[in-house]
Backbone:
């Protein structure tokens, strides 16, 4: 390759050193390897002593140099364009660097001139800068004054738009700016206006909060009542129409929490410490009072009631239910407010005001109040008036309508369950037990209510007794006023027990009043119906009827109640078995008419008293079974002291006392039934025993075909008893009274034979006719044959045979008659025989023969 002009020739050795060596396969080795080879060659040349060796290495070196030179030439030829491009670029860059170097020199010279000028004019520039700053500050102050004058208008516009938070920020910013220009005269009016705007904005924000936590929760619950009022009535009443329009307009999808956060945030901008919360609590209290009055007014309109209307438990329950739900909804809103402000005093203040308002409602509807509790807010503590608000249009007329019906202490009944829930909610939320409302309800309202119940129960029962012409008149007719009144009172107590569980012992004691007064009244009727007056040695003495004396005898009553037919008498579908009559020494004595119950009205009253007492006991036991188990447990655990009618006191568990009194009622009822049972049997003795007395014609003088008058009288009495009792008593009890009469009459006929001195043939026929007459009348009443009376007639028919024949028939008759009855038969046959009756020892001889025949037959 030909050398170019200006190019410096490169020595071959140098070219060889600069050219990378190639490997045996024709490829060039890397730089570090060529350098190592060159160092080895140089070391060999410098260290070798042998000239040949150095010459050899020199030749190798030259050869490599030539090869490198050839390679360089070849590469130059291959990259000739790139080399020329690089040289051109190098020249261009070199020219530019020269130009930049000249420009830098020019800038450096200019800067030096500027520095010189600045140094010369520094004082003038400083003076000009100070003057410019002063003018700029004056302009800023003027602009700020213009802005401050416009801020009240801006705030009013923001308040009208409802942008309270922005308005609060604007006022706060303006107050900060006012402090910066407070030395300027003429801004007092602006400062005063800003303070007024701050107060107005604070009031409006608090009113929005009160509306969110009080008005809206209350009115949402009022909407349910409003929906039940016809549209024409709503439109005809301005108050209802206003409420309806507000409810329709107050439709917002924005959550309550966000609204509270925004409004409280606006308050915090105006007052970081939220010192206005006390004012907010007073505003909330005033609105709670007004909303409750508005609710009462709405209930009045819905139910068409007023303060002269009788107590309406349905309307009262509706009112207190709505108020309870309103307070719960408002409580939730106040909880959100307390959480946002981080001050639990907000919730505590709400419950204080709620209790005050509810206390007032309860006081006005029950007619009771507590001197230690305020039922209305102190007017001096009301910092705000709401006559101009939308709410005032509705509540203005309701402030005079404070009750929905006539005040009465009984109004606490529908109010108490909801008051109990409210008290529990308040105590759980506030942690104060008992709360103020609980103290008022328990110590004032319920105390007076229980006292009033005691007085009313006693007075109502006494009024019925005193209003009747006589004690018996209370049980005349199918409608028994006293019984109906007692039933109403019993169910009233049961209703109160379920709804006022806390006062179960005091309420259960009212049952004792009903029971004791009822028993006292019934005993008066019983004593009059079962007593008669006798004169002994010129002294008038009251005595009991025979049946009453037997029923009062513990042995007789216990015996009768132990028999199977007594238990069957209380079964609805019982078939009673015959009963053996009661035997008494009276059988052998004459019975006076005064000892009988001959007045059927007395019998009717005894039957009614029995049923009334039974129903009373059954109702009380049913009511005791129906009350919840926890109330029974309370009644069993609490002891009660009760004063009896005689002045003595009875103590014990409430449930045990009631059970003992109910058992007493059941015992009195059982006594009445026993007496009716025994009275009819005394009538049997009274009418049939005289038939055994000697009569004209040798003890059997009557020859007519009719029965004796005593049999007619007995039949008349039994028919009167049956007709009267069948209208009052159930069939099992009627059967209890009449079953066994045939057996008793047969026994009377048979055993009265021992009192007959003799019996003629006509007398035998008369006795058989009397037995048949009794059997016929009794069968007509009971619908049965009364086979026992057939046995008595067979007893007297045997007298048609002589004594020897009677003894001969003992093997057959001993199955029908007892040994004693056969002895009576033989004795009467001997006394009636014309010859044997005059023979001494004849009766004893035949009785001995009878005993031998009986032993042989058995």
Residues:
């Amino acid at each position: 390759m030909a050398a170019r002009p200006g190019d410096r020739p490169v020595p071959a050795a140098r070219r060889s050193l600069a050219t990378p060596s190639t490997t045996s396969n024709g490829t060039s080795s890397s730089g570090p390897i060529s350098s190592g080879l060159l160092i080895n060659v140089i070391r060999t040349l410098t260290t070798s002593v042998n000239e040949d060796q150095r010459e050899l290495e020199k030749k190798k070196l030259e050869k490599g140099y030539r090869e490198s030179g050839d390679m360089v030439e070849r590469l130059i030829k291959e990259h000739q364009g790139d080399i020329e491009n690089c040289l051109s670029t190098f020249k261009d860059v070199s020219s530019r660097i020269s130009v930049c170097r000249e420009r830098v020199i020019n800038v450096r010279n200019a800067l030096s001139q500027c520095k010189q000028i600045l140094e010369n004019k520094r004082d003038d520039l400083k003076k000009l800068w100070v003057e410019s700053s002063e003018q700029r500050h004056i302009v800023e102050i003027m602009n700020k004054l213009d802005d401050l004058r416009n801020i009240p208008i801006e705030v009013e516009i923001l308040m009208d738009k409802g942008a309270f938070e922005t308005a609060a920020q604007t006022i706060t910013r303006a107050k900060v700016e006012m402090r910066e220009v407070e030395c300027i005269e003429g801004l007092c009016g602006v400062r005063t206006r800003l303070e007024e705007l701050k107060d107005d904005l604070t009031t409006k924000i608090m009113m929005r909060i009160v509306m969110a936590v009080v008005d809206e929760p209350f009115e949402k619950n009022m909407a349910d009542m409003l929906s039940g009022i016809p549209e024409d009535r709503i439109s005809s009443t301005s108050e209802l129409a206003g409420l309806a329009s507000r409810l329709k307009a107050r439709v917002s999808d924005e959550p309550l929490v966000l609204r509270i956060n925004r409004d409280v945030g606006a308050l915090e901008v105006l007052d970081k410490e939220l010192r206005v919360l006390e004012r907010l609590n007073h505003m909330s209290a005033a609105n709670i009072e007004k909303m409750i009055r508005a609710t009462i007014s709405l209930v009045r309109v819905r139910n068409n009631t007023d303060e002269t209307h009788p107590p309406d438990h349905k309307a009262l329950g509706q009112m207190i239910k709505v108020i309870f739900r309103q307070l719960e909804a408002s409580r939730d809103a106040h909880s959100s407010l307390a959480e946002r402000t981080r001050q639990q005093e907000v919730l505590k203040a709400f419950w204080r005001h709620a209790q005050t308002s509810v206390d007032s409602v309860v006081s006005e509807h029950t007619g009771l109040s507590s001197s230690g509790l305020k039922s209305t807010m102190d007017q001096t503590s009301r910092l705000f008036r709401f006559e101009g608000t939308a709410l005032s249009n509705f509540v203005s007329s309701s402030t005079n309508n404070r009750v929905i019906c006539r005040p009465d202490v009984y109004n606490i009944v529908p109010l108490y369950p909801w008051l109990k829930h409210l008290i529990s909610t308040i105590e759980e939320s506030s942690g104060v037990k008992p709360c103020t409302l609980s103290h008022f309800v328990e110590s004032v309202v319920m105390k007076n209510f229980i006292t009033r119940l005691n007085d009313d129960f006693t007075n109502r029962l006494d009024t019925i007794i005193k209003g009747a012409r006589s004690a018996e008149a209370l049980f005349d007719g199918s409608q028994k006023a006293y019984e109906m009144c007692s039933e109403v009172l019993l169910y009233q107590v049961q209703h109160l027990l379920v709804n006022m569980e806390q006062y179960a012992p005091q309420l259960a004691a009212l049952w004792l009043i009903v029971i004791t007064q009822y028993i006292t009244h019934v005993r008066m009727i019983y004593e009059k119906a079962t007593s008669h007056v006798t004169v002994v040695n010129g002294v008038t003495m009251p005595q009991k009827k025979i049946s009453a004396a037997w029923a009062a005898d513990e042995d007789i009553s216990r015996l009768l109640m132990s028999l199977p037919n007594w238990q069957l008498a209380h079964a609805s579908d019982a078939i009673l078995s015959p009963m053996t009559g009661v035997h008494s020494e009276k059988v052998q004595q004459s019975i006076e008419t005064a000892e009988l119950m001959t007045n059927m009205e007395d019998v009717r009253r005894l039957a009614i008293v029995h049923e009334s007492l039974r129903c009373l006991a059954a109702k009380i036991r049913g009511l005791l079974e129906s009350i919840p188990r926890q109330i029974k447990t309370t009644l069993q655990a609490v002891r009660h002291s009760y004063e009896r009618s005689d002045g003595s006191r009875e103590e014990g568990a409430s449930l045990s006392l009631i059970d003992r009194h109910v058992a007493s009622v059941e015992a009195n009822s059982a006594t009445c039934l026993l007496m009716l049972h025994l009275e009819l049997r005394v009538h049997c003795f009274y009418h049939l025993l005289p038939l055994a007395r000697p009569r004209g014609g040798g003890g059997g003088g009557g020859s007519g075909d009719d029965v004796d008058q005593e049999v007619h009288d007995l039949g008349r009495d039994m028919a009167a008893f049956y007709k009267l009792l069948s209208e009052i008593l159930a069939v099992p009890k009627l059967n209890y009274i009449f079953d066994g009469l045939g057996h008793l009459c047969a026994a009377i006929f048979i055993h009265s034979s021992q009192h007959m001195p003799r019996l003629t043939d006509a007398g035998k026929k008369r006795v058989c006719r009397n037995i048949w007459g009794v059997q016929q009348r009794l069968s007509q009443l009971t619908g049965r044959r009364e086979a026992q009376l057939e046995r008595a007639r067979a007893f007297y028919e045997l007298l048609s045979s002589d004594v020897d024949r009677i003894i001969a028939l003992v093997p057959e008759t001993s199955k029908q008659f007892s040994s004693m009855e056969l002895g009576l038969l033989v004795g009467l046959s001997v006394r009636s025989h014309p010859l044997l009756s005059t023979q001494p020892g004849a009766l004893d001889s035949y009785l001995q023969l009878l005993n031998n025949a009986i032993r042989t037959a058995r």
Notes: The first strand starts at residue 531 and ends at 536.
